[in-house]
Amino acid sequence: MPVLIPADKLRGFVGEIVAAGGSGPEEAEAVARHLVEANLKGHDSHGVGMIPTYMKNLQAGLLVPNARLETVHEAGPIGVFDGGAGYGQVIARDAVAWAMARAREGGLGLFALRNTHHVGRVGTYGEQAAEAGLVSIFFVNVLIVPGRVAPFGGMAGRFGTDPICITFPGTGRLAPFVLDFATSRVAAGKVRVALNEGKKMPAGCIIDAEGNDSTNPATFFGRAPAEGGGALLPFGEHKGSGLALACELLAGVLAGAGTMKDGLPNRGVQNGMFAIVIDPERFADRAWLESEMESIVAWVKSSPPRPGTDAVLVAGEPERISMARRLQDGIPIDGNTWNELVAAARAVGVAAERLEHYAASGAARVT
Fold it and tell me: Which of 354, 330, 325 is nearest to 5 (CA)?
């Protein structure tokens, strides 16, 4: 049964692990806050369950602690940056801050980011811009060996999960619009969560090595000897597959990050990012923008819900609902994920008494 751990306790534990891996206090806090926020918002695929992978990549030299955003080229509203294989949660945050400053100055900030370890939940950066009253668009590619997502009509992995994020600032009465999705049917981390929780995947998400449908998450990770490694399917058939290729072209080719290909060296989990941040007031009066946004959202939500659906939700609402619930009840962590976190902590030298302290923090609260 999963344990419910308060967000602050989980944040402290993850921060200690990252710090033990060599990160300074600011970086450790930023990474921990980002990951726990993903859990709070219901995206366990991008939450603290990523830490074992991060520590493995750190020990292999594929993740560099305390790396900082480096400017490759900068001209007016356009910036090209290198992340030095550092924590994407810090590198991408700083690149977005740069673009936000340019958007405030001239209406537009556009950047390309390369050579960056996993940036985590891309919606975080969209929220960063939206909270400042800015519009944002992100295309991200995922460089990982082997390929995880089969193209439409294919059965072998050729893409990463290649996410896209589009956000629009909210109003005094309405929260921001935050659309954040993988171009695969589900994020790879959701398969990891299902595997750790001993659950099946929904039909239509993964295929085995022969291209047959499967609901066994071990098929994807190649942990079932009889099945070998499988692949995720793109969402929307040719549409998701086409958007994944668009991510490779924009975040991989245009951004200079590189793309998925035969013989790609193992660099852990790296991301390329192509992002546009816009000041909407360069296009229309803010009062009109807010009025129209409220109008269209109200119109969308006025649709009578289908049978079995409680209400029509717009992008960003499920995350806010999840966050309110998990801040109150705690974040569910299954036993396998907790054991992986403890093993990762031990691997980087977190003291045994600290592990006991954090284990006790949630052990009495079981769902």
Answer: 330
Task: Work out the percent of the chain whose per-residue pLDDT is above 90.
Answer: 79
The fold adopted by the segment(s) 1-66+303-367 is: Hypothetical Oxidoreductase Yiak; Chain: A, domain 1 (1.10.1530)
Could you read off the pLDDT of 188-227 as tens digits, one per residue?
Answer: 888 888 888 889 999 999 998 889 999 999 888 764 444 4
The residue ranking higher by pLDDT, 236 or 267, is 236
Q: Which two tokens stand for residue 308?
A: 């079995």
Stretch 62-71: mean pLDDT, rounded?
A: 98
Q: CATH says 68-184+234-282 is which class?
A: alpha beta
Backbone dihedral angles phi then psi of residue 115, each to the nearest 5 degrees: 55, 50
Give CA–CA dist 283/342, Å, rounded: 51
**150 within 8 A of 162, measured Cβ to Cβ:** no
Distance linking the first and last C-alpha atoms of the chain = 7
The DSSP bridge partners found for residue 165 are: 138, 180
| CA distance to 12, 113, 147, 331, per residue, from 269 (Å) | 24, 14, 11, 25
